[in-house]
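Field guide to reading this record: the first block holds the primary sequence, the second block holds the structure written as C-alpha cells, and the final block holds curator observations. Each block starts with its own label. This record concerns Rhodanese-like domain-containing protein, catalogued under organism Faecalibacterium prausnitzii.

BLOCK 1 — SEQUENCE
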Amino acid sequence: MIEKIDAGTAIRLLDAGKAVAVDVREPDEYAVGHIPGAKLLPLGEVNSRAAEVLPEKEATWLVYCRTGRRSAEAVQKLDALGYSNLYDLGGILSWPYEIEGDFEGHF
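BLOCK 2 — STRUCTURE
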C-alpha cells in the first residue's frame, strides 16, 4: 500500500536529508517551479528511466505533481518496479513551503 504524506511531515524528512522529492510533471512545469532539490522524472518516463533517475530502490521518495493525479499513478508504477519507501505527496499546488523557480503567476 502506498501512503499519502502531508506537507509538514514531508518537509521534516526533506530538511533532515531522510527523503528526496520526485517531481513527475513535465520539464516545462518543473522549470516553472519545483520543491528545492527535487528530481525530475516525468510520469511518461517512469518505467524507462526510474533506475537512472532514482537508483536507490530502498531510499525514501516523496512523489508529487501539480494536483496529485499523476503522483498517484507514478507511485503505483514505482511500486511495481520494486521501490519500497514511496510516499504520495500529492500536488505542488498545496505545498506551503519554498518553491524553486520562476513560478510567479504560473500556478
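BLOCK 3 — OBSERVATIONS
The longest strand covers residues 85-91.
The CA atoms of residues 59 and 85 lie 6 Å apart.
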